[in-house]
Structures are given as structure tokens and as C-alpha cells.
Amino acid sequence: IYHNKTIHGTKRDAQRYLTKVQREKDLGTFVEPSRESLDTHLDEWLTVSIEPRVRERTLASYREMLDLYIRPELGKRPISNLKPAEIQRTCNDMTGRGLSPRTVKYAHRVLKMALEQAVKWQKIRYNPANLTDLPKSQAVEMKTLSEAEVHRFLEAARETPWYPLFVLAISTGMRSGEILALQWKDIDFRNAKLGVQRSLTRLKGGVWRFTNPKTPRAKRQISLPPSVIDLLTKHRKMQAEIRLAAGSKYENHDLVFASDTGQPLNHRNIVRRHFKPLLRSVGLPDVRFYDLRHTHATLLLGAGENPKVVSERLGHASIVLTLDTYSHVLPDMQQKSAEKIEGILFGDS
Length: 349
Fold this sequence. Notes:
Blueprint: H1 11-27, H2 38-50, H3 56-74, H4 84-96, H5 101-120, H6 147-157, H7 163-172, H8 176-180, E1 187-188, E2 193-196, E3 199-202, E4 208-211, E5 220-223, H9 226-246, H10 267-281, H11 291-302, H12 307-314, H13 319-325, H14 330-346
Helix pairs in contact: 2-3, 3-4, 3-5, 4-5, 7-9, 7-11, 11-12, 12-13
């Protein structure tokens, strides 16, 4: 008898199992299987191990993955009885429901981390999520706008209130959360620079927070073209007029881009109501807002800018990431380098 459950099989099998348990106890490696459910462990893991260490948005994302895909299938199972095959079936079911490989892998990764902590806390002997086969990833196609397409887009946006925001996105390569969290104090008009110091994070229920940028290197200084400085100066004057007209209704968070009452803008609303319609109005490809960041990088690299400089403007963790991400631009750079060396060595001959 073990945990009030009969050990099924032959008497010899039972004896072998008990002998193995005794040997592990003698060696100090025996882990008493926990009787708690996976749901109970997940609650403890999120509260004790995860909540103190991650941003609110990350915590909310973990909870969402577990609530949507893991708890309904496996939450009531005793954690010590959880089998690799059960986790495999859960992942297979997610794929069968049409969920993307990325979503399946993310949900599995969160469960795997939770079970890894269960091993460390000696609730289970091994992590069953390590023995799961996952679907192959599907690479997201990078789309960018050409120089001519950028001009068409900005021309269409010129008479809208969103023109300064779109210009800043294309001219700096900033992430949308960084743009929406940008404050006037971050802009050095005299030296034509801005500092990326924070990101805007939205949680459920309309709650928003300023959080740290994605990586330590994402905190950075970006030089601005004179035309962008002039545009931001005009935008600041227009915003001051809106703030004055709103009076006490205006909540001043010093945001460069804010609603008529001073609140942070909603990225999804900008994309759905303004960005996508503008693209369609001039017959441009259906790119994501994030692709403006890719557009910034490819335009600079295509013009021969040093990849190190581009990497610093984007706030990448390393230049290797920049080169890997935009390797498709490098063949043209190689050709331009050959033309330059031709002129240096043989230009006068």
C-alpha cells in the first residue's frame, strides 16, 4: 500500500518498487509525491515565485495561458500523477483547435516552468513537460514599406492628428509601447535627441502602467532629424491648446501622445481606426504597426548605415540580433561596398 492506493501488478513488481523507494530514501534522493492538485501548485507558483520577479503584463500573460489552456484540462489532476502523455494530448488538442504553434509553445513553456519549480520544491521527482513534442514554429514574415511607399503613407497621414506619431515611429524605429509612454521631458529639443526610458503596458479592465523597456539596452538615446524636431515642436503647441480647452478634465501625464483628456492612447485603437485605414486608402500592403520598426531598420541599412548604429537606435540586445533579423538587406550592402572599394582603388585609373 502506498498513499492509500494499491500497487498494481505482480507481487514481484511491488517488491521491486518498494526496494527502489527504500534505496532512494537511503541515498537521500527520495521525493515524497505531493497530493496537491496542479491548480493549487500553479496558484502558489504564481504568487511566490513569479509575481515578485516579473512585470505585471508578463504575470497577466502567464495567468491567461494557464486559465485558457492548462487549468481546464489538467488543473484538477494531482501534480504527482501528471503524465507526459496527458500534457502531450493537451498540446495536441490546442493544435487541433487551430491555435498557432507559437501559442501552443508559450502555454507549454509556462506549464514547464511551473513544473520545474515543483521539482525544486520537491513536490515531484521529475518534470513531465520535458517529455513533450511540440509543433514546429512558423516564422512570421517580415514586411516593410519601401522608401516610395513610406512617402505615400506619410502624405496620406499628413492632415490627420496621427501624423507626428507615425513620423516618429518610422524615423526612430521605436516600439509602440515606447512611443506611447514617451514624455516631453524625454525630448532634448536643443540637441535633437530623445531618451527611451519606459514603456506603456495595458492590463485588463483598462488599467495602464509605465514599465521598464523590454531589455536593459532598450533604454537608449536616439538622435532626431531636424524635420522631426520641428514637427514635434508644432505638435507640442497644438497639444497645449487642447489641454487649455479641456481645463480641469485634462489629466496631465506629460505624454507626447495623449487623448483629449490627457490619457495614454490605446495601441489597438490607433491600429484599427487609423493606421490600417490609411494603408488601405493609398493601396499599400497590409503591414503591422511593428513593421514600421522593421522599415526604419531596412531603410537605414539599405542606405549604407553602419549596422552597429542601427542596432543602437533599435535598442537591440546585441548587434548579432540586428544582423540576423535584417540579413536580407546585407547582400545589397556587400555590393555597395564593392562599388566603394572600386572607386577608392581604381577611380582615377
